[in-house]
Amino acid sequence: DSIDAAFTAKGKIYFGNIGDEGTLAQGETTEILNANFGQITPENSMKWATIEPSPGDYKWAGADFLADYAMANGKILRCHTLLWHSQLPDYVSSITDKAEAVAGRYAGKCYAWDVVNEIFNDDGSFRDSVFYRVLGEDFVKVAFNAARRADPEAKLYINDYSLDNLDWAEPKVTAMASNVKKWIAGGIPIDGIGSQAHLAAGGASGVGAALSALAASGVSEVAITELDIAGAAPADYQAAVQGCLDVETCVGVTVWGVTDAQSWRSEDTPVLFDANYEPKPAYTALLDML
Ligand code: XIL
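Above: the input record for the complex with XIL. Below: its predicted structure, written as tokens.
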């Protein structure tokens, strides 16, 4: 009955979810993760403001907890995220120091790192961030090179939202794919593109085509990294997961939240288990499909 077993039987690497020390302690969360999911992403514990709230003052406890949980339970760890304009501390220190300290500490434990997160606007231009203002697009090169030095094994990802539909999100998908192609040609060590996939109800039909356009950039893999869908209709979840099945280089799917009560979009009831830790119809529909 494990969705991870069913999904990996189709040739994929993992079907995962998120967690942190706080949520794993709630009710049956850890039991659900242990039984059903093969991969875990820290929801917040590896973000810059959490891990280094003031310069040089590293708070490792939460991130260590999650890495230890993953190692002890045989879960693939996706590490998230080195550089993001959000959840930054008020000061911002050197990108390379941060990448080397954090990626170095978990070196060998992370299947993948989301090295940069949400760096494009919806029109495909670069988001205004402290990184872009100071370094221009070179911050991408600096971050990926630092991450590669610190953890030569991890697959290094660029991750973003609104990469799930070629109708309304086409400019962003195109900008992502063409920039990544250019960066790879320039020697920047980018291995993967992550499509977050925080979807609206009825919004999953374009996921596969968009993933395919991202895969055409020349990355070795793509993934759905933060899946949640308003209403969690079974057909929507099936369409999104089918999108990954249909794209040869799509390695896995991560759902962004175990229960609806824990979800950052809880009012949308967007994930696979309800507030009572019971599987919802979308969960059963995915198992049926796989
Ligand atoms: C969210 C977490 O789920 C919340 O708990 C937190 O308050 C804000 O961040 N894109 C990302 C994730 O890459 O890290 C975000 O996670 C959701 C949007």
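Notes for the reader.
The chain has one domain: 3-289.
Residues 3-289 form a domain with the TIM Barrel fold (CATH 3.20.20.80).
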